Amino acid sequence: MCAAAVMVSIGDDGVLNREVSQELSDVWIDRDLGWLDFNDRVLAEAMDDRTPLLERAKFLAIFSSNLDEFFMKRISVLRKSSTPERARLLATVRERVLCSLQRQADCYRNTLIPALGNHGIHVRRWDELTAAQQDEASAHFDAEISPALTPLVFDPAHPFPFLSNLSTSLAFLLHDDPKEPPSYARVKVPAVLKQWVALKAGVLDGETVLAPLYEVIHGNVQKLYQGMKLTGTTLFRVTRDAEFEIDDESEESLQDIVREQVRQRRYEPVLRLEFAPGADPSIRVMLRERFRLSATDVYDLPAELDYTTLFQIADLPFRALKDPPWIPLPSAAMENSHDVFAAIRAADVLVHHPYESFEDSVEHFIAAAAGDSQTVAVKMTAYRIGDDTPFVKSLVKAAEAGKQVACVIEIKARFDEERNLHWAAELERAGAHVTFGVQGLKTHAKLALVVRKEASGLKSYVHIGTGNYHVRTARLYADVGLFTCNPKITQDVVNLFHFLTGHSQAPACSELLVAPNNMRRRWLNLIHREIDNQRANLPARILAKMNQLEDPELIQALCEASTAGVQIDLIIRGFCCLRPGVPGRSENIRIRSIIGRFLEHSRIFYFAAGSSDPIQGEFFIGSADWMFRNLSKRVEVVTPILARESKVKLWEILDIYLRDRRQAWELGEDGAYSQLRPADGADGPEALGAHATLMEHARRVIE
């Protein structure tokens, strides 16, 4: 594990402001270094021999995909200021990244590739292929690869080619006239093609031989430049900035602004240049000068250039080398009722994905409303909803049936802007009311509202969740959601949708915590109530599970609670800016992170509220992490959990996470994470981990 570094840096861009820095400097961990810590925990899954082999390949790919996003979103932010502190932070980031890349390469070369070979999956370079396999690969090149390639030359007579973000290219020195200096040649490795070419020549039954696409192109590149001499083969990759601000106060339509910004993102500056081993020095210099990069913006990869191609290998049909398959099970409350609305009327329903089926609960809720003659209105928020989403189909069906349909679509959701614009247009064509939220704020809340005309009058049903209405990620992300028709909550949701689709002041919600209106204040009040209870010798405790912790004001409040003696357990999957265990400041705070086959995405909060019975305490779930952006720059919703049965379920979930010693990492006083290990003879969550335990728990409940 690379050495942990603790630095103080927050504001909108993650740098601690001067007013807060003195109060928090002794407990503060820089968010960017904390994020790199998180990605190292992902990498550790690839290095853990308890992880099935093809899952280890997948984690190597996830590590690289995460790192790509980090560079696209964070590096330009860190460069905005030229202070000595920023310079030191950037240097530390580079040092940490280089260390992690070396560990990734060692894992790939020394562990993954030999282990794959032992199981009949052979990864071969061009010069490691047999003559027959090279012939087969060349025939494949001619038929399936060459037509998709565009060989280019750039010299005084040919312009420099456009290099798209995260594209991989082969560059060469092209020699035509011996009396003239060479030109530069470039061939893009097409991302639309499979990145590993499967070969059959001389391969035994049950075995697989794979050659990287770029190796097959390199082995046949002379066909693209016939009669020319090529030297200086260089495999490289560029990363462009993806961090930009959208001015939604412009007089232009927000759709047009977002479309133009997405188009411009293709041409944002290159901020990272990566080279595979053996790059030609003159090509390195030429590219670096072309993109106006410093030496610290150039990364020499020790092995593979782009490990995200390993997703293809992870998908190979070798069942024994993967996690046991998991098919989400129906929610017991939903399964026992053919009428989803009757099930919700009977009692609040809390669902936990992917252990319980998203399709049979959340999807079914909206689909049932679309086809229900008593439904008069369906309203939803949409942040990331994916391709071919069933939710849009259901909303279109509802609109075409004459129901009131409203969808608040966040078209500023990074990397999903074009997709969300597409679905907005589809809904508008069907007659749905589409809005884009509140000016100056991103709408990140996860809300769905169904209004039915029943014998007693209009009745509202809502779903409030922690995760996106996205079918694919619902099978990969761990999230919770609440179905309820409790008027205390549904009236708040009705009023909130009026605010989101119309033009009014933010509603004063009686039950919901809504950012940026009352959420920060409510969290602070809840924390300070635990402090008061502790001082009054009443039971006091705080448990909180989230993706990230970064908000300075809440961190300060947690430290005050710790100093007062309140016991605090935080389960934070990603970066955490609070250092626990600091005497006199955070010694009563324990922080852990759960990493495994599912991405922990749920936000669950518990406060003892003066009761020794945990079920008598107060529970909340919702869309918001404790980050400045979530509490001050986004529309977020957190709901209280009022039904006893739902509270029991949440307490069981939290207890399993806190007992886990298989997937859990603990953050120490020194700012470094250590992986926990189960004791000899341990069972349950301690040995199995949270995910396996929750899968087994879901099976028992449905049986």
Q: Would you give an account of this structure?
A:
The protein has 21 helices and 27 strands. With 703 residues, it is α/β, with parallel strands linked by helices. Strands 14, 18, 19, 20, 21, 23, 24, 25, 26 and 27 form a 10-stranded mixed sheet that branches. Strands 10, 11, 12, 13, 15, 16, 17 and 22 form an 8-stranded mixed sheet that branches. Strands 2-4-3-7-8-9 form a 6-stranded mixed sheet, with helices on both faces. The chain is globular and about 90 Å long.
* Helical amount: 25-40%
Given helix and strand content, the structural type is alpha/beta
Over all CA atoms, what is the radius of gyration?
Answer: 27 Å
Q: Report the span from N to C terminus.
A: 42 Å
Mean pLDDT: 94
According to DSSP, the number of beta strands is: 27
Principal-axes shape call = globular
Low-confidence segments, given as residue ranges, are: 3-15
Largest sheet: 10 strands, mixed
Strand content: 15-25%
Number of helices: 21
Protein topology:
Blueprint: H1 18-24, H2 31-47, H3 53-79, H4 84-118, E1 121-123, H5 131-145, E2 152-154, E3 168-175, E4 183-189, E5 196-199, E6 208-212, H6 213-219, E7 229-240, H7 254-265, E8 270-275, H8 281-290, E9 298-300, H9 310-314, H10 332-335, H11 340-346, E10 349-353, H12 359-370, E11 375-382, H13 390-400, E12 404-409, H14 417-429, E13 433-435, E14 442-443, E15 447-454, E16 457-465, E17 477-484, H15 487-501, E18 513-515, H16 519-535, E19 541-546, H17 552-564, E20 567-572, E21 589-594, E22 599-600, E23 604-607, E24 618-622, H18 628-632, E25 634-641, H19 644-659, E26 664-667, E27 673-675, H20 685-688, H21 690-702
Parallel strand pairs: 1-6, 8-9, 11-12, 12-13, 14-25, 17-22, 19-20, 20-21
Antiparallel strand pairs: 2-4, 3-4, 3-7, 5-6, 7-8, 10-17, 11-15, 15-16, 16-17, 18-25, 19-23, 21-26, 23-24, 24-25, 26-27
Helix pairs in contact: 2-3, 2-4, 3-4, 12-13, 16-17
